[in-house]
Input
Amino acid sequence: MHQSTRCVSGAKAQGFTLLELLVTLLIMGIIAAWGIPSFQALGERSARTGEASRLQTALGFARQTAISQRHPITLCPSHGPQDTTRCGDQWNQTLMVIRGDQTEGISSADVLRSFPATERVDVNYSRGWRRIRYDALGHTSGFNGRFTLCPPSDTSRAKGSTLVLSQLGRWRMANAPAECPH
Output
């Protein structure tokens, strides 16, 4: 008769067999492989939420400043990480709130506030404009616009979020997910 436990100093030694360890590792591997895409999606949603918050804060600050100072205020992305003297067209760059209606030759004294750039979200503005100008009543110039917030372009078939900006200078998040161009 063969026993699977051994006696060591009168006590039974217990442990895992090699087969039990392999099965446990296999199950852990399957669970990890199943959970990684969900974890990545959680990170993408978190990044989009953070970017939406950054845009809402910048839009709100620019609008409130225009109303309180009764003077036009411009919100635009910087041309690059180090170039804050002119507006660019990449809305995920540093956002600048600028006194007046200017897009070129911006002095540091005219930049009222900056909002740091983001890297994990692509931001596209539907109007293709390089700036949003608020008048003294807090209204934006032009037509309604949409900011589409998408994961980086290396993510395939991903859904994004949409922030809608009205002519009255107010914004809202759209309920339906946005299609991201990749």
About this structure: Residues 9 and 57 are 70 Å apart (CA to CA). The longest strand covers residues 159-165. The chain has one helix and eleven strands.
